[in-house]
Write a structure and sequence with these properties.
6 helices, alpha/beta, five-stranded parallel β-sheet, 48% helix, Ribose 5-phosphate Isomerase B, Chain: A, binds D-ribose
């Protein structure tokens, strides 16, 4: 699976931890930055990752900022993106099964690092249910 990942300074440490997890797991990863803890603007990173997913260059995206909120707002502006901000594994599983979310957003200042990795693991490994009612609702989002 091809994964696009990005963070701002507020999510930099978790991005590096998640990168390690993805590399160990054998994922094909493209890191869109940021590459240091220096302050930067989350919409720039969010749009780069979201556009990579929307263009089909990446299968899924992962975005981290302080809260995860700015990243999710910005990513969801890109057509075809269904970005889900998750702080628990139940939501991570449900948003894959029901929303077929293609971008996961996390808040480094909101949740612990082990929980963040669990959320990533569940989200990456859960397939969309494919059920007609869920597909119909997803289609409505794009109308
Ligand atoms: C940066 O201080 C912070 O605003 C950003 O990481 C994010 O939480 C925005 O939603």
């Amino acid at each position: 699976m091809r994964i696009a990942i990005g963070s701002d300074h507020g999510g930099y440490e978790y991005k590096q931890e998640i990168l390690n997890y993805l590399n160990v797991g054998g994922y094909d990863v493209k890191d869109f930055g940021t590459y240091s803890k220096e302050s930067c603007d989350y919409p720039v990173i969010a749009k780069s990752v979201a556009k990579s997913v929307a263009a089909g260059e990446s299968d899924r995206g992962i975005l981290i900022c302080g809260t995860g909120i700015g990243m999710s707002i910005a990513a969801n502006k890109i057509k075809g993106i269904r970005a889900a901000l998750c702080s628990d594994t139940f939501s991570a599983r449900a948003t894959r099964e029901h929303n077929n979310s293609n971008v996961l957003c996390l808040g480094q200042r909101a949740i612990g690092d082990k929980l963040a990795l669990d959320i990533v693991d569940v989200w990456l490994k859960t397939e969309f249910s494919g059920e007609a009612r869920h597909q119909r609702r997803i289609d409505m989002i794009e109308e």
